[in-house]
Design a protein that fits this description.
The chain has 351 residues and is mainly α. The chain contains 17 helices and four strands. It has helices at 2-11, 22-41, 43-53, 55-60, 68-83, 87-95, 100-109, 115-129, 133-147, 155-171, 173-184, 196-203, 218-221, 225-256, 281-284, 321-340, 343-350, and strands at 262-267, 272-276, 307-311, 314-319.
Length: 351
């Protein structure tokens, strides 16, 4: 490292670079690029080297160079050190007042809106946004008079505001806590603290509980009994209403005398099976005048009945018990009519 930094140390012994020609500026710019890389990737060893050899103060001498690119390389090196937010670097900067050459270069640049001006303002803006308290206090306390008239950006006024807020927090710690609560718009509780109810529940002994007593969290005990009983009462009302409806349906079905149809299977080989309407009294009594075998069958014929017939196979018929009862009643009526016929008609029928 001493070989790498030898040209830098030799050219920055005074407040201005000893040689400010273009070749020397290019060489120093390359050296600063390597040192910047070391700050980013070799933090521990380069930190000891920078602090022991006072490298940052030597680098900031180059901000007075007439070559803008060399001054920007020096600013980039300091910006990388500030970006680490390491308190060792911060104390080193404050102890040696290393912001002074930066502010001097800013004032010498004047009102020109160029890359050097923007780079310096960006470094101060980073300190404000990241709220680096030690550097904020150091800049405001030591360099505020040189920066207070800069009003085309709000960076330095923001630094002053940050500094005043820090002072208020130090003077009134309670005010700091209240501001954090208002900023979050809600109360935050420490996750490690338990609620009083939970502590009471954890403190209760299991032996104190009666046999069969359920262990219920305190939050459930706080619920009112009305809220718990309301869904149960609604369920019971719906159940009662359903039971009454079922009873009404059963009563109507018993009054109508209808029963569920019974399904029968008829096994017939070569005979025909027919499903017809209930037979009349004439069809049940072959001796009646309306029967096909009676003499008056030509004049009086029974009305045609619809029937569904199938040949062979397995046929399922629907047999209603009410139809059987009606058939039995009609058979009884036919027998009673035969008994009431006059003797002359009986003799004719028998002949």
């Amino acid at each position: 490292m001493h070989v790498l930094s030898a040209p830098l140390l030799a050219n920055t012994t005074e407040e201005k670079p000893s040689k400010d020609d273009f070749q020397t500026a290019q060489l120093l710019a390359l050296i600063l690029e390597l040192l910047t890389f070391c700050v980013e990737h070799h933090t521990y060893h380069i930190k000891n080297y920078i602090i022991n050899k006072d490298i940052l103060r030597r680098v900031l001498v180059l901000t007075a160079s007439q070559h803008a690119f060399l001054a920007l390389c020096a600013l980039r090196f300091m910006r990388r050190i500030v970006g680490l937010k390491d308190e060792f670097y911060n104390r080193y900067i404050m102890r040696n007042f290393l912001f002074e050459p930066v502010i001097k270069a800013f004032r010498n640049n004047g009102s020109r809106y160029n890359l050097l001006n923007s780079a310096i303002i960006e470094m101060f803006e980073y300190v404000r946004v990241e709220d680096i308290k030690s550097l904020t206090a150091h800049i405001v306390e030591n360099y505020w008079k040189s920066l207070e008239d800069v009003d085309y950006v709000q960076t330095f006024k923001g630094l002053k505001l940050r500094y005043e807020q820090q002072r208020e927090r130090q003077d009134n710690p309670k005010l700091d806590s209240m501001r954090s609560i208002l900023r979050n718009h809600r109360f935050r509780r420490d996750a490690r603290t338990l609620e009083d109810e939970e502590e009471m529940w954890f403190n209760t002994d299991e032996d104190d509980l009666e046999d069969g007593e359920a262990v219920v969290p305190p939050s459930d005990k706080m619920k009112s009994e009305e809220d718990l009983m309301e869904p149960i009462s609604k369920f019971m009302e719906r159940k009662k209403l359903k039971d009454t409806e079922d009873k009404e349906v059963l009563g109507k079905s018993s009054l109508s005398g209808r029963q569920n149809p019974s399904f029968k299977l008829s096994f017939s080989g070569s005979t025909k099976t027919s499903l017809a309407s209930p037979p009349s009294s004439a069809s049940l009594n072959p001796g009646s005048p309306g029967s096909p075998g009676s003499p008056g069958s030509g004049a009086r014929s029974s009305p045609p009945t619809t029937a569904v017939t199938t040949k062979g196979g397995l046929v399922g018929l629907v047999d209603y018990p009410d139809d059987d009862e009606e058939e039995e009643e009609e058979e009884d009526d036919g027998e009673s009519k035969e008994d009431t016929l006059p003797p002359t008609k009986k003799s004719k029928l028998s002949s």
